[in-house]
From TrEMBL, chain A:
Location(s), subcellular: Cell membrane
Membrane topology: Multi-pass membrane protein
Keyword tags: Cell membrane, Membrane, Transmembrane, Transmembrane helix
Protein name (Swiss-Prot/TrEMBL): ABC transporter permease
Organism expressing this protein natively: Lapidilactobacillus mulanensis
Pfam families per UniProt: FtsX
Main location (coarse class): membrane
Automatic annotation (TrEMBL), chain B:
Alphabetized CDD domains for the sequence: ABC_MJ0796_LolCDE_FtsE
GO MF term (any one): ATP binding
Regions that span the bilayer: none
Family the entry assigns: Belongs to the ABC transporter superfamily.
Name this protein carries in UniProt: ABC transporter ATP-binding protein
Residues annotated as domain ABC transporter: 2-219
């Protein structure tokens, strides 16, 4: 009848007390487990968020420098009769792009070149909004004297591939028929059209349409390889002045947009978005990239604000979770220690009997430890089962919290200075609902629209951690309670 | 086998000592009674003999070794077995398991021998059913017999009992006292019984009376 058997007999004989101990221990462990799960979830959410938020670098014409030189030239011209100052933006050269793309940590890039044309073999969707164009809409194309400052009714957004274009990755745009624009579409006249336009004009994949340059001098035969659907929420409210219906945007390879804009634009792009594989490295990539370009003409801006804010909010959640784990562990230890101390006081008589038989105090303490260990094992099972439920609830809670906090970031930063005009050329601001107001801003949408799945499951690792915490708690509790046993005089218990 | 040398004990101040300079000797194969009025200090002396407390003065020698040298826990484990007025059994166990626990704790030569423990309980009049149910379901007399059986299952040469018949009726008292005589004589142990009942003292081989802070040999 060693202390293992005594522990067992005691638990069996005092069922009521044993059940209460199991329940209290389960409750405490459940709290600890919840804390551990929150911490795990925060870890998972952090890496998820980092992955989904990503960070980008945008290479585009240096607007600040361009404005400065424009002001300078208009001042020197002050004697002559006031002419509209022209803003000269230099399109990005592909050679520069390739150099930056070869930097480490640059995952891929997407070129954007925008222009507009007039529909020829079909009609653009007309909206009540006037499609007449205000003069200051001219981008680099506007400064081109050969081009008129007016805008065609069809916006051509040239990209490297729609798979990397923000509207399609996270703006809600979907390819419904055919395929999107691919890198292999370079130097082709392949386009994809919006479903509303396709419906109105009975266009389908494989059809060919004709468009004319805005000046009317050239016409192009374009082949429809896919039909996309823009989100219906892209209402007229989001359109800037002079915007045409978003359905009038066709996507093509950037080469087509360049061709339409003129030979001068060969091997250029309005802007380039580089996806950085590790958001934490975005600034070092930016530094390296800036060295490769002429900063008077171009600017390379980093868009990692969302990554930073997600990182900050995740760090908050994580430290909160850490605190909860420790708080609960300490509170649990105190509660359990008090209960065990009370229980042991109640068992002074039994301890006295064992001491009078000559049992060592260490073995008496060991008996209590074994009892609590057995209680712990059962309680772990209960807490583990309950933890699955708690974990699911926590996961939902955390996801909504994370999503809303990121969404706030999107709102506050997309209008900020980092929100660049994506395409310099044909005022793309109006044509696409939100994406083109700024590549930077748009890329923030990633995290809010890609609902991050938080898998808050109880894993064996959690249970092992929980077991560790449980053992530590009962160890500390029994050690505290044992002070009483070590000082207990059997004489006092048994005789007085 | 056991020798008390100049033992003195007091609770608060030395001037109020219960006894001073006590010199007593106890031998195996003999039974001793310690009698005296209530409050005279019998239990206190027994707690010193049983290693539950230390004397304030003097020393207790077991077979030439002082108790402080042996260590009280080891002394209680190996050399002394105590029977209390209130039985002091482990209440969450059956009589059988109480015996097995004591045998394991004291590392008795019969450790783990269930049949030996069973036989001992049988000898003391417990049925098989009684020895496997919780001890608290037994009568006082039966519980005290379990406590005595526990002592008999252990190898300790010294058996001390504090008012072992205090809670028992006449018949049970006689039986229990006879059991202690058997333990002393048949198992060659030293039995020291504290009692205030003259009948009990009369059965023992020797009897000390504690009065006026001194022990006097009555027989
Ligand atoms: N723990 C104690 N603290 C102080 N005095 C005590 C304590 N235990 C017993 N006493 C006193 O010591 C005296 C002897 O007690 P005890 O040895 O129990 O006597 P007996 O067993 O002969 O009745 C009594 O007067 C009692 O009040
Ligand atoms: Mg007494």
């Amino acid at each position: 009848m060693n202390f293992f058997k005594r522990a067992w007999l005691n638990l069996i004989a005092k069922k009521g007390r044993t059940i209460l101990l199991i329940l209290v221990t389960s409750a405490i462990l459940l709290f600890v487990l919840a804390g551990l799960l929150i911490r795990n979830a925060a870890d998972a959410a952090t890496s998820n968020a980092k992955k989904s938020v990503g960070a980008t670098l945008t290479l585009s014409a240096n607007r600040d420098a361009a404005f400065k030189s424009m002001r300078k030239s208009s001042r020197s011209d002050s004697t002559s009769k006031p002419t509209k100052p022209s803003l000269s933006l230099t399109p990005v050269k592909l050679a520069d792009v390739k150099q930056i793309a070869s930097l480490s940590n640059v995952k891929n890039y997407n070129l954007t070149a925008s222009t507009s044309v007039n529909a020829s073999s079909f009609d653009a969707i007309s909206t009540s909004t006037s499609s007449s164009v205000s003069a200051d809409q001219g981008g680099p194309g506007g400064s081109d004297s050969k081009m008129t400052s007016s805008q065609g009714d069809i916006a051509v957004t040239g990209v490297s591939t729609t798979a990397l274009t923000t509207n399609f990755t996270s703006g809600g745009y979907k390819i419904t028929k055919g395929r999107g624009i691919k890198a292999s579409d370079a130097n082709s006249n392949n386009i994809i059209v919006e479903s509303e336009l396709a419906k109105q004009e009975s266009l389908s994949v494989g059809d060919t349409v004709t468009v004319k340059s805005v000046s009317g001098s050239k016409s192009y035969k374009l082949k429809i390889v896919g039909i996309y659907k823009a989100p219906s929420t892209s209402g007229s409210t989001q359109m800037g002045p002079g915007a045409t219906d978003p359905s009038n945007t066709v996507y093509s390879s950037y080469t087509l947009a360049n061709t339409i804009k003129g030979t001068k634009y060969k091997n250029t792009a309005d802007s380039v978005t580089f996806n950085v594989s590790d958001p934490a490295k975005v600034n070092s990539v930016k530094k390296a990239g800036t060295k490769l370009i002429s900063t008077s003409k171009y600017s390379l801006s980093a868009n990692d604000a969302s990554y930073q804010s997600v990182k900050a909010s995740m760090t908050n959640i994580k430290s909160f979770a850490d605190k909860i784990v420790w708080l609960v562990a300490i509170a649990g230890t105190i509660i359990l220690a008090l209960i065990i101390i009370l229980m042991i006081r109640e068992r002074r008589y039994e301890i006295g009997v064992l001491l009078s038989l000559g049992e060592s105090r260490a073995k008496i303490i060991a008996q209590f430890f074994v009892e609590m260990f057995l209680v712990l094992i059962v309680a772990m099972g209960i807490a583990g089962a309950g933890g699955t439920f708690v974990g699911n609830k926590l996961g939902e809670q955390l996801v909504s919290q994370q999503t809303s906090s990121t969404a706030t970031t999107v709102q506050s930063t997309s209008n900020g200075p980092s929100g660049q005009m994506g395409g310099g050329g044909q005022a793309p601001s109006g044509n696409a609902p939100s994406g083109s107001t700024g590549r930077g801003g748009a890329s923030f949408m990633d995290s809010s629209t890609d609902k991050t799945e938080l898998d808050v499951q109880v894993t064996p690792t959690n249970l092992a951690e929980l077991g560790g915490f449980g053992l530590a708690i009962i160890f500390v509790s029994i050690t505290l309670a044992s002070v009483g046993i070590l000082r207990l005089s059997p004489r006092k218990v048994l005789i007085d | 086998m056991l020798e008390l040398k100049n033992i003195g004990y007091w609770y608060d101040i030395q001037d109020n000592s219960l006894f001073e300079d006590v010199n007593l000797k106890f031998e195996t194969g003999q039974s001793y009674a310690i009698v005296g009025q209530s409050g005279s200090g019998k239990t206190t002396l027994l707690s010193l003999i049983s290693g539950l407390d230390k004397p304030k003065a003097g020393e207790i020698i077991l077979d030439g070794q002082s108790l402080s040298h042996i260590g009280l826990t080891k002394y209680r484990q190996k050399h002394v077995s105590i029977v209390f007025q209130s039985y002091n059994l482990l209440t969450y166990m059956s009589p059988l398991n109480n015996l097995l626990t004591a045998m394991a704790v004291t590392k008795s030569s019969h450790e783990g021998d269930k049949n030996y423990a069973r036989g001992m309980l049988q000898k003391l009049g417990l049925t098989d059913e009684q020895m496997t149910k919780n001890v608290q379901r037994l009568s006082g007399g039966q519980q005290q017999r379990v406590a005595i059986a526990r002592t008999m299952c252990c190898d300790a040469k010294l058996v001390v009992a504090d008012e072992p018949t205090g809670n028992l009726d006449e018949d049970n008292t006689q039986e229990v006292i006879q059991l202690f005589q058997k333990i002393a004589h048949e198992q060659d142990r030293c039995v020291i019984i504290v009692t205030h009942e003259p009948d009990v003292a009369a059965v023992c081989d020797h009897s000390y009376r504690l009065a006026h802070h001194e022990f006097a040999l009555e027989k």
